[in-house]
Structure formats: C-alpha cells, structure tokens
Amino acid sequence: MKNLLSITLMALFSAGAMAQECSLDMEKSAPSTRYVANDNGTFSDELTGLTWMRCQLGKTWDTKTLACSGPAETYHWQSALSMVESINDQSGSHALHKFGGEKEWRMPNIKELVSLKEVACHSPAISHKVFGDTFNVEAGNLASFIWSSTPASDGQSVMTFDSINGEVYQYNAAQYKFSVLLVAE
C-alpha cells in the first residue's frame, strides 16, 4: 500500500506542465478576439496597439508549427537590458534584429504586461490562443516570471509578472533570473 501511494504521488508531481484552466462563469478580461496572431512569431494587440513577440527570449519561433520551441532563457535584469540592446544594435548581427519586421524591441513596463492578464484563467493567466503552450510551465519554474522595465520604489527591485497566476511581484534585480518577453510600438 505504501509503494502504491508513493508511486501515485510521484506520478502526480512529475506530470509536467499543467494545462490552462479557465472559469466558464467569469467574463474574459483579455478575450482572444482582441489579438491578431501573426505567422511571423508576433501578435498584435488591437486594444493597446502593441506588437508582442510570441516567444520568450531563448525560445525559437517555428514557422512550420507556428509555435515556440526550446527552453526559455532566464536573465538577471541588467543582463536582460543588455540583451535587448544587442537585439536592437544597428549592426544587425543578432538573430532577433528586426524580428517580425519590427524596427525596435524593448522590455515592456509592468502595465503593459498586466494588460495581457486573463483573470478567468490560470496556469497560465494569459491568452492560450496567442501564446499556445509557451507559458505552460510548472509552478516554481522561474521562466514563468517575466521581467518588466518598471523599477520598484526601493531602488533595488524590479516589477515582474507571474504568468501562472497573473500576479505582480517585485524582485531584486541582481539576485533573480527571470524570462524576458519583448514588445514593440
């Protein structure tokens, strides 16, 4: 009996990423109809006018499957800012330079990240239509947190968006490594 319980618990906890769950009783706060999914690895948000990359940095847009593949990279905040500078460098040597036809990519501010939040859903709390399985990660995986460009009031922390629950947290910019999702005007 003890072995059966142990095996059952191991299966439950090693099941991998969970699928998105949405409440049918709640009105969608970020309905899929406001997004235009582009085949070039971006999507347009008709409400905000912003264009977003569909993959976190480190993942690759697959033009055949129209999905992100590979693992997301995590960065300390300053390294993330340097990566964005590298992407936008006029030499054009970075693979993501002018990705999706956009001239310049940047880290979003926290309000822009929160605009992606779907209150009726969790795991992840963002549109499955737009991101697919990109943010289907296990709780505790730091790639589920997304750095913003918004500093916190303590001068050492930066605001982050938790894609699993759609919550905002502040973390020390030098101590933590989180994922990066880029946006363009």
UniProtKB/TrEMBL annotation:
Domain Lcl C-terminal, residue spans: 41-183
Range of residues in the leader sequence: 1-19
Pfam families to which the protein is assigned, alphabetical: Lcl_C
InterPro entries the UniProt entry points to: Lcl_C
Alphabetized UniProt keyword annotations: Signal
Record has Manganese as a keyword: no
TM helices/strands, residue ranges: none
Domain of life according to the entry: Bacteria
Name of the protein: DUF1566 domain-containing protein
